């Protein structure tokens, strides 16, 4: 376990962030970020830190303060402003209180804030308040959990970490845990750390660096103990090859995504959107392909902090048949039904333990599905949440394997403890969508012609609405530039895939890459298109055929691939074609474009009929004269513009003004307008399919009829 503290970095962080809450809190934030950057120390907010200090009031009084990390804030991204400042002297008095409900505890925290804010402090705030140390670090390290979650765990902790480490029994976070940790500390004044069974590690120091250093030291001791006592019981390289597992996932992911998407009461949106994140690794396959995989992997979670991400148990599929996808679908559907029934019984059995808990409408579907020969498939309402579940699952498998290979027996918590933490209001707040839920959260779109003016506008608007987007276009500088922009703005929510829509194999590969990234697809936007200026009498046949391949065959290939995926996924979907006003009102010298786009338009009208039985809506957006999107010029107008300017004796600016003046509203049509029309369709604001929205400012001759 390497110590990652770098003094120069710490100094730079203090210079940059010290003014927010003071240098000491900034240094605590730096230490917290170091911890959070190591998944083997603290995973996805699974831990908290604090610092005790003094703040001066407006009246000039100095008040003892506790700065504790806010609930739900990821450790690796924490800033000084993410520490809630509380009245420490008052919080210490709560140690004498007999009990506190979560609601009363939250109210106490809100009323005892020395600096106002919307964030609530960690559920473990009272542990930080009661422990008489200046800087405190609480984490859930992998190596520590491999000691705490086994029969005879206390003896293993002492053997691994030494006599200067105390042990506290597992107790629900809050007042009880705070009191138990403080009692353990008071009973052994020379302690350097405390381990809470089934929970994690608590260290401290006179300052943030000392507390951080102690964490690194203790985890290092645990790792060394495990290394020395470990013997391999899972054979190497006898399980499924990685490439085989990846191919299986791509083949069945849409099926799984459909089965893991909760049904909705909204007739216009029959399923809640779900994103998948697979865990396909050599170690995972070694475990899941072993004879004892079910008994090992389906035991209780490592720590109850993770339950709101993964639920209490995964779903294990015995002997999945990857060669017969229909049979596999029936098998998985049956197992999910049994899982849901078990989870419903679990809720009903323990719901009286939490009077405030309301089980109505609760999703009973699994969050983690374990498949021998493939790996783990984890689900969430968006990619970030799905990946958190994936990472937690990976840690769980690593720890359970380590316990087995050090001659231990895994020992989890009782269902009562699991229920208490899974449904506590404090915990569920962590995963609640902050603010208004984006309308397309969890949705997945693939967009062709994405590097152009209209295509980039569509991608950006879908991303703003919460959608995950695969932006596709011909490989080259334009696509590379778009990838750079989208990744900077939206990170992993955006995927960029090179695609020639005239190549059937490339279309299939683009769908596969999107499925690999997100688990499936809900929205297909067909925007790729070419234009050509020529009279019919002088038309070059090869040029016409080039348009025919892109505008017609490309549309057909996308529709065919979309239909196959939507049928497998079985959660409805949308196709939107970016058509053109030329379908309804063609122009001279624009025969090739008008004819081929009209054919594409007609293909989509047919698709609206054929796909309706799957609940898939197919609609068209018909724009006119979109010249650019920001600094990105339209490729179509780069081709068409010179001829139109010459014919009308106009320069570029004059041509744009001409097209603006010719529509009824005198509107400049933008890529954003086209994108909003796409969003109108895919958010299902009306039960509409086979329709065309003109986005042209009003052109009577091109009104759909």
Summarize the structure.
This protein is an alpha/beta fold. It folds into three domains: 7-229, 3-Layer(aba) Sandwich (L-fuculose-1-phosphate Aldolase); 242-431, L-fuculose-1-phosphate Aldolase (3-Layer(aba) Sandwich); 444-626 and 670-697, 3-Layer(aba) Sandwich (Rossmann fold). It is built from 25 helices and 20 strands.
Q: Measure the end-to-end span.
A: 70 Å
CATH class of the largest domain: Alpha Beta
Low-confidence stretches: none
Number of strands: 20
Largest sheet: 7 strands, mixed
Biggest sheet strand order reads: 3-2-1-4-7-6-5
Estimated share of beta-strand residues: 5-15%
Residue share in helix: 40-55%
Q: Tally the structural domains.
A: 3
Discrete helix count? 25
What is the averaged pLDDT score? 92
What Rg, in angstroms, do the CA atoms define?
A: 29 Å
CATH architecture assignment of the largest domain = 3-Layer(aba) Sandwich
CATH superfamily annotation of the largest domain: Class II aldolase/adducin N-terminal domain
CATH domain topology of the largest domain: L-fuculose-1-phosphate Aldolase
What do you see in this structure?
With 705 residues, this protein is α/β, with parallel strands linked by helices. It folds into three domains: 7-229, Class II aldolase/adducin N-terminal domain (L-fuculose-1-phosphate Aldolase, 3-Layer(aba) Sandwich), CATH 3.40.225; 242-431, L-fuculose-1-phosphate Aldolase (3-Layer(aba) Sandwich), CATH 3.40.225; 444-626 and 670-697, NAD(P)-binding Rossmann-like Domain (Rossmann fold), CATH 3.40.50. It contains 25 helices and 20 strands. The strands form four sheets. A seven-stranded mixed beta sheet has the order 3-2-1-4-7-6-5, with helices on both faces. It has a seven-stranded parallel beta sheet with strand order 14-13-12-15-16-17-20, with helices on both faces. A four-stranded mixed beta sheet has the order 8-11-10-9. Strand 15, helix 21 and strand 16 (573-578) form a beta-alpha-beta unit. The mean pLDDT is 92.
């Amino acid at each position: 376990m390497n110590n990652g503290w770098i003094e120069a970095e710490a100094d730079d962080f203090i210079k940059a962030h010290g003014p927010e809450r003071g240098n000491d809190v900034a240094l605590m934030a730096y230490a917290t970020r170091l911890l959070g950057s190591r998944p083997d120390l603290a995973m996805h907010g699974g831990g908290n830190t604090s610092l005790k200090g003094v703040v001066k009031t407006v009246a000039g009084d100095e008040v003892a303060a506790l700065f504790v990390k806010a609930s739900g804030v990821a450790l690796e991204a924490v800033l000084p402003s993410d520490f809630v400042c509380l009245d420490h002297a008052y919080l210490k008095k709560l140690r004498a209180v007999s009990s506190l409900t979560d609601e009363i505890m939250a109210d106490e925290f809100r009323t005892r804030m020395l600096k106002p804010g919307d964030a609530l402090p960690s559920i473990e705030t009272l542990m930080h308040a009661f422990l008489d140390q200046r800087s405190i670090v609480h984490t859930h390290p992998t190596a520590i959990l491999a000691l705490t979650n086994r029969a005879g765990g206390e003896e293993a902790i002492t053997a691994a970490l030494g006599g200067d480490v105390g042990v506290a029994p597992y107790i629900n976070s809050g007042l009880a845990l705070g009191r138990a940790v403080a009692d353990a500390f008071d009973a052994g004044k020379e302690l350097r750390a405390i381990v809470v069974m089934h929970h994690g590690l608590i260290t401290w120091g006179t300052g943030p660096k000392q507390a951080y250093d102690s964490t690194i030291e203790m985890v290092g001791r645990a790792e060394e103990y495990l290394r020395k006592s470990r013997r391999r019981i899972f054979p190497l390289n006898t399980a499924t090859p990685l490439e085989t597992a990846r191919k299986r996932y791509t083949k069945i992911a849409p099926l799984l995504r459909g089965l893991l998407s909760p049904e909705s009461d909204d007739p216009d949106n029959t399923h809640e959107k779900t994103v998948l994140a697979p865990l396909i690794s050599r170690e995972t396959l070694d475990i899941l392909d072993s004879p004892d995989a079910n008994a090992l992997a389906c035991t209780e979670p490592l720590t109850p902090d993770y339950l709101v991400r993964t639920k209490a148990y995964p779903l294990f599929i015995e002997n999945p048949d990857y060669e017969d996808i229909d049979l596999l679908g029936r098998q998985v559907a049956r197992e999910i039904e049994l899982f849901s029934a078990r989870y419903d019984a679990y809720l009903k059995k323990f719901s009286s333990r939490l009077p405030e808990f309301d089980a109505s409408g609760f999703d009973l579907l699994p969050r983690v599905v374990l498949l021998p020969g493939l790996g783990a498939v984890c689900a969430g309402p968006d990619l970030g949440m799905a990946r958190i579940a994936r990472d937690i699952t990976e840690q769980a498998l690593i720890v359970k394997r380590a316990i087995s290979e050090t001659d231990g027996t895994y020992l989890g918590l009782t269902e009562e403890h699991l229920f208490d933490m899974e449904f506590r209001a404090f915990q569920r707040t962590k995963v609640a969508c902050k603010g208004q839920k984006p309308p397309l959260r969890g949705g997945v779109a693939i967009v062709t012609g994405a590097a152009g003016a209209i295509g980039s506008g569509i991608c950006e608007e879908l991303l703003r609405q919460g959608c995950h987007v695969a932006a596709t276009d011909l490989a080259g500088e334009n696509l590379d530039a778009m990838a750079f922009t989208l990744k900077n703005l939206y990170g992993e929510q955006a995927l960029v895939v090179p695609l020639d829509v005239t190549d059937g194999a490339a279309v299939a590969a683009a769908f596969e890459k999107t499925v690999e990234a997100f688990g499936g697809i809900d929205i297909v936007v067909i925007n790729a298109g070419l234009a050509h200026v020529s009279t019919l009498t002088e038309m070059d046949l090869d040029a016409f055929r080039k348009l025919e391949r892109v505008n017609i065959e490309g549309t057909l290939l996308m529709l065919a691939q979309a239909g196959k995926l939507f049928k497998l996924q079985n959660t409805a979907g949308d196709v939107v074609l970016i058509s053109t006003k030329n379908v309804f009102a063609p122009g001279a010298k624009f025969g090739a474009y008008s004819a081929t786009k009209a054919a594409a338009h007609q293909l989509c009208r047919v698709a609206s009929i054929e796909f309706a039985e799957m609940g898939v809506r197919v609609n068209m957006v018909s724009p006119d004269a979109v010249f650019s999107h920001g600094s990105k010029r339209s490729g179509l107008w780069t081709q068409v513009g010179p001829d139109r300017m010459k014919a009308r004796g106009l320069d570029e600016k004059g041509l744009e003004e001409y097209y603006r003046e010719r529509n009824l509203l005198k509107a400049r049509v933008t890529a954003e307008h086209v994108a909003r029309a796409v969003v109108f369709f895919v958010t299902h604001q009306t039960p509409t399919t086979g329709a065309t929205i003109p986005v042209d400012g009003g052109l009577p001759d091109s009104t759909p009829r």
